[in-house]
Write a structure and sequence with these properties.
methylmalonate-semialdehyde dehydrogenase (acylating, NAD) activity, alpha/beta, binds nicotinamide-adenine-dinucleotide, MeMal-semiAld_DH, oxidoreductase, 2 domains, Aldehyde Dehydrogenase, Chain A, domain 2, 16 helices, Aldehyde_DH_dom, Aldehyde Dehydrogenase, Chain A, domain 1, 7-stranded mixed beta sheet, EC 1.2.1.27, about 500 residues, single chain
Length: about 500
């Protein structure tokens, strides 16, 4: 009997009625380990209606009390860290230590959200006119939706929940159907921490469930993270429906290696950032751009030698550098891109295709793959591969190197490795990318800044979490007040001004 993963509604596990399911694999073995239920449009509508009722009381609770629920929640997640990380790895495939990182980066946003009483404070102007004061306040939107991708099944749901719940909203979370178990457990723990039932609802599903959220009038905002085409679709549909949205998309991040870079650091950083989590990170570093032929030759020689030594293993292998990719279909897509790279004329130096792990021959493994002499005209360079594939694009100057990320369709993250502060400063100022690392390979901003790319990496003008998260999940109300003094002024038929 296959285990079923159910919706989590009104504080309880809720068995769905659609008869539609998605397979959840164990990527280490290739076996189907569970089925996840897919919600119908009616089921989504009921989940939203119940959340709408529950939200009223939650919003009325003072922000300090809401924050205390999140404080308790953080302790509960920490207490379950080991079992949550193992559950996450068993569905995603990333190694357990990396799954803990996934959980901890999410908890850092919860920690930031614990400061919500301060973050929600409005503005006040005394005597903006004679006897007139003006003040503003931030109020929750109502019921909002979060739609998350497979690659961070703990962190990204917590980005959404932390900011949306702290600000007094109810949230419908539609997690990735590929690894849905951790989001469910995270929601159960939120109720254990004191969140009223119905304020956080989990509906599983595919396009049907997503469309049901996008077309539901009671959903006031949608926060989405996933691939760019779907992100664009979410953005367009939300705009048509008059909903607020933030829709983060795919990526192809470049790491520029200057001749004066610390090559030991560069090689170490690229190994982790290009191959960690099997390259399934939107802030992975799959493109290396060495500047000058000497830099390129040294980098390529050293990364080839070190990448070939990486240990690919099952998620629970404490010595493994990375585990399997999420599905057989995704592995096939990565292998197809490797073939495209060869067909387009790049030099394949390490080929991870056909990698078999002894004892786990049916697992979705793929070995480290390295290309040299990749050109900007190649589609294998232009598109996101999202696997353990590092492409080297050689450049003759910093100017030529800097144009690559700036002109790429994606603009999520970029890194420059150099000892020259002036060059780094100029680069950071001019590059057309949302998040920049200077000798930092994965520049994911800490929770009290905010996360967001440019171009096709994000269809939005507010970033995830940080003060942008507070802005996204609240609407501002501005009050202009005057109290009667008994002095009745003239009737006014023209708009009042400060003249
Ligand atoms: P995906 O776009 O396939 O799925 C994301 C979500 O959209 C899932 O919940 C899925 O069920 C839903 N979905 C899938 N098809 C849909 C459709 N036709 N209509 C409506 N909804 C649909 O993405 P994924 O494969 O789960 O995640 C990997 C992608 O996410 C990569 O492109 C990666 O770069 C990107 N990503 C981006 C960021 C970022 O912040 N920019 C962070 C993490 C991942």
């Amino acid at each position: 009997m296959t285990r079923d993963i159910h919706h989590f509604l009104n504080g309880k596990t809720t068995v769905g009625t659609s008869g539609q399911f998605g397979d959840v694999y164990n990527p280490n073995t290739g076996a189907v380990q569970a089925r996840v239920q897919f919600a119908t449009t009616d089921e989504v509508a009921r989940a939203v209606a119940d959340a709408k009722t529950a939200q009223v009381k939650w919003a009325a609770m003072n922000p300090q009390r809401r924050a205390r629920v999140l404080m308790t929640y953080k302790s509960l997640v920490e207490a379950e860290m080991d079992s949550l990380a193992e559950l996450l790895s068993s569905e995603h495939g990333k190694v357990v230590a990396d799954s803990k990182g996934d959980l901890i980066r999410g908890l850092e946003v919860i920690e930031f959200a614990c400061g919500v009483p301060h973050l929600l404070k409005g503005e006040y102007t005394e005597s903006a006119g004679t006897g007139i004061d003006v003040y503003s306040m931030r109020q929750p939107l109502g019921v909002v939706a979060g739609i998350s991708p497979f690659n961070f099944p703990a962190m990204i749901p917590m980005w959404f929940m932390g900011m949306a719940l702290a600000t007094g909203n109810a949230m419908i979370l539609k997690p990735s159907e590929k690894d849905p178990s951790v989001p469910v457990r995270l929601a159960e723990l939120m109720v254990e921490a004191g969140l009223p039932e119905g304020v956080l609802q989990i509906v599983h599903g595919d396009k049907t469930a997503v469309d049901a959220l996008l077309h539901n009038d009671d959903i006031k905002a949608v926060s989405f993270v996933g691939s760019s085409n779907i992100a664009h679709y979410i953005a367009q549909t939300c705009a048509q429906q008059g909903k607020r949205f933030q829709a983060m998309g795919g990526a192809k991040n470049h790491g520029i290696i200057m001749p004066d870079a610390d090559m030991d650091q560069v090689v170490t950083d690229f190994l982790g950032a290009a191959f960690g989590s099997a390259g399934e990170r939107c802030m992975a570093l799959p493109v290396a751009v060495p500047v000058g032929q000497d830099t390129a030759d040294e980098f390529v020689g050293r990364i080839k030698e070190e990448a070939a030594k990486l240990r690919v293993g099952i998620s629970t292998d404490a010595d493994a550098h990375y585990g399997p990719v999420v599905s057989a279909a995704h592995r096939a897509s990565i292998e197809k891109w490797i073939q495209t790279g060869i067909d387009e004329g790049a030099d394949l130096l390490l080929d991870g295709r056909g990698f078999e792990l002894q004892g786990h021959e049916k697992g979705f493994f793929i070995g480290p793959t390295l290309f040299d002499n990749v050109k900007p005209s190649m589609t294998a360079y232009q598109e996101e591969i999202f696997g353990p594939v590092l492409q080297v694009v050689r450049a003759d100057s910093l100017d030529e190197a800097a144009h690559l990320p700036s002109e790429h369709q994606y603009g999520n993250g970029v890194a420059i490795f150099t000892r020259n502060g002036l060059a780094a400063r100029e680069f950071a100022s001019k590059v057309q990318v949302g998040m920049v690392g200077i000798n930092v390979p994965i520049p994911v901003p800490v929770a009290y800044h905010s996360f967001g790319g440019w171009k096709r990496s994000a269809f939005t003008d507010t970033n995830q979490y940080g003060t942008d998260g507070i802005r996204f999940f609240t609407k501002i109300k501005t009050v202009t007040q005057r109290w009667p003094t008994g002095d009745i002024g003239d009737q006014a038929f023209v708009i009042p001004t400060m003249n």
